[in-house]
Specification:
5-stranded mixed beta sheet, 10 strands, alpha/beta, 256 residues, 21% strand
Length: 256
Amino acid sequence: MKQTAALMIILVIMAGCSYQETKEKDELFISAAASLTEAMDELVHAFTKEYPDVDVTTNFGSSGQLSRQIQQGAPVDIFLSADQTWMDTLEDQGRIFSKTRIDFAANQLVMIAKKENTATSDNLDALAQNSRDQIAIGNPDNVPAGRYTKEALMHEDLWDLLEDQFVFAKDVSQVLAYVESGNTEIGFVYKTDADRSDHVQVITTIDASLHEPIVYPAAVVKTSINRKTAEAFLSFLESDRAQTILNQHGFLSVNE
């Protein structure tokens, strides 16, 4: 009888060990605006130190492109957008859990040139004097930074005047690459993008009154099968640790 009881205990312990060994980690798939690429590496690392049983996969692109992927049924848990418009679109279509939506960061729009370029325009008005300069911007139809740029240039009556000089990019990372390589003389990106490059200089910071506020929202997508874990990541984004990481990468707090 004692031998039988001892055998049962051993079997229970072995079963428990086997379960622990075979238990799969929770998976979290995050689609994030391209301007968050470097910050997300550090954010994910910090999050998974707190939640070691979670595997996080990230996908980067323009907010418009990522939003359309979600509209087409992409299996995304969390969407981090560089503007409110694309998040509003998903909310209007019932594709996110509205109660999970938060604003977690802000940014600034800047005009950049290659570091060695000393003969370029140094403000928006001067752009009109350099009709030969090519200007890289994100496609306003998909890229929030491009739309903010268009708003600022239209406010200053420069959009139509400069239209033939625009080179449209798929996201801010491509704009940065165009300017770094010298393929365009001027580009409009977020300050955080300019800060991560050793090859460009900020010519001017665009007056925030010329465009909509640059605020980054996040939300859990309704296709998520890990809503609890996704909500934990959103709570982490609002934590002091995450906000410090974002600030270190040049992002502003929402209330600044």
